[in-house]
TrEMBL record:
InterPro entries: NadR/Ttd14_AAA_dom, P-loop_NTPase
Pfam families named among the record's database cross-references: AAA_28
Identification of the protein by name: AAA family ATPase
Positions in coiled-coil regions: none
Domain of life: Bacteria
NadR/Ttd14 AAA domain: residues covered: 5-166
UniProt xrefs under SUPFAM superfamilies: P-loop containing nucleoside triphosphate hydrolases (SSF52540)
Length: 176
């Protein structure tokens, strides 16, 4: 079983905060491809931005996620991914109709348990890198909620509680 664990779910649901807590506890964390791409595109004047060219953005996210997967430490304790390959591939597949998920899931398997941040409107915020509204976040969440079980993953909803309790929940679930 892979030590690569995905934290996915609804945008603005506290993924990054949870991953910071796990990193503070000594675990390796791989940051979300999308935010890194937005920062890079802004820096070089590129157009592969979700609000400018969604297809180019998602193709770049898949490439970044594949690189993250291949360069992440393979020995030792859990490695936590903020989103990852499946999230980007599911969005691109929905956008273009090009089947990607099955093959990418076979070549890049993650731990069988995926942790989802549920929609949490009370903490949702738009920021320069996340310009979509709560409705778009809910659509994304519903897509991921369908896709992960179809690929054989067990989705575990994170409780709406403190970040410390969420991190404890993740680690206790994985160590069972």
């Amino acid at each position: 079983m892979s030590t690569f664990v995905l934290i996915s779910g609804c945008s603005g649901g506290g993924k990054s905060t949870l991953l910071s807590e796990l990193q503070n506890r000594g675990y390796t964390v791989i940051q979300e491809p999308g935010r890194r791409i937005v920062q890079e595109q802004w820096g070089n004047g590129g157009s592969a931005l979700p609000w400018q060219d969604m297809e180019a953005f998602l193709k770049e996210a898949i490439q970044v996620a594949q690189t993250d997967y291949s360069t992440a430490p393979k020995d030792g304790p859990w490695v936590f991914f903020d989103r990852g390959l499946i999230d980007a591939a599911a969005a691109l597949e929905e956008l273009t109709g090009t089947p990607l998920l099955d093959e990418l899931n076979k070549t890049h398997p993650y731990h069988s348990q995926v942790f989802f941040t549920p929609p949490w409107p009370e903490i949702y915020e738009v920021d320069p890198e996340r310009r979509h509204d709560m409705n778009a976040a809910l659509h994304e969440y519903e897509r991921l909620e369908r896709v992960y079980p179809l690929l054989g993953y067990q989705v575990r909803l994170l409780p709406k509680t403190s970040v410390e309790n969420r991190a404890d929940f993740v680690l206790e679930t994985l160590n069972q």
